[in-house]
Amino acid sequence: MGKERFHAEKDGLLSSGLALSAYVTVDDTGARHQGKNGYVTHIGNEHFAWFQSTRSKSRINFLGLLRAGHSDYQINEDALAYMKAQGLSYVFLDALRQHESASFADQCAWQQHLNGLGMNTPRYRNIATEGALLGSLKRHGVAPDLAIISDDAGQFNVMIHGLCWVHAERLVHKLLPLNDQHREDIARVRGEIWSLYADLKDYKQHPTAKRKRELARRFDTVFIQKTLYATLDRLLRRIHMNKSELLLVLERPEVPLHTNGSERDIRDQVKKRKISGGTRSELGRQCRDTFSSLKATCRKLNISFWEYLTDRISCSDQIPLLPHLLEQRIALSA
What we know:
- The chain has 334 residues and is an alpha/beta fold.
- It has three domains: 1-70 and 140-164 and 258-334, Nucleotidyltransferase, domain 5 (2-Layer Sandwich); 72-133, no CATH class; 165-251, no CATH class.
- 59% of the residues lie in helices and 10% in strands.
- The chain is built from 16 helices and seven strands.
- A hairpin with an 8-residue loop joins strand 1 (23-30) and strand 2.
- The longest helix is centred in the middle third of the chain and has 26 residues, at 180-205.
- It is globular and about 65 Å long.
């Protein structure tokens, strides 16, 4: 008990971060709780880090986390557009459109609404729920142009989505060559990928329309080429299908080309799992998420975590609330 102030400050970090940031990177890893496997999700950027443990890592779960503590479901233009793009039946889409601007207080109220529409197909219910959660995000101030950079895990593919180049190249690196020619092809292609990556990094500093066109053409040249290794060719074409997400930086030079920040932040969670195994009580789980978030954010804001804890426990309040400091840091970096 007595940790409510810390929990509230942690939740405020996510609300401020999602409302003011141009992008966040995301990742997840295993986290056991009460002897059962679960997951901890990281959301953050160079200014803040936020962790939350859950039983699953579905897209519904991720969108629920992005609500930053809110529990409502919203049918609005953004929700309906998402449902249509995901292939929701026009019968149910039209039925939901009749309730545009409707808000449902919690999961129970939303599920009752879907039951009333006769929506029994699990896939349709998932699509509708994802859309309603997305509608809730827009209602609660999540930046409309927020970019989410991930490692291509399906649950993170929402809103404006970008992909990590390190994870994409890793697929090529892990290929097993069957002969010397295959080995040479893999080495050459990896060199071309990293050369393109280096030029994309330079583009971030000096973006021009001409370089944008050149880099887009080079991407096609690298990922549509034919080699003497059929498996490599199929992989390159699969990566090419993610062209818009891998080249998001051409439209948004401020976004990162990788998720290294999330990988680095979540490493502490991996260490905790290996050492302690997991949490037993709900309070223990909540405290693990809260203090991991506050500690990592203090580090990013150049605040001593020890001094922060001393300040909060003594109620001296010399250190401003972290969400306020986060807002100032983002404003200065804009």
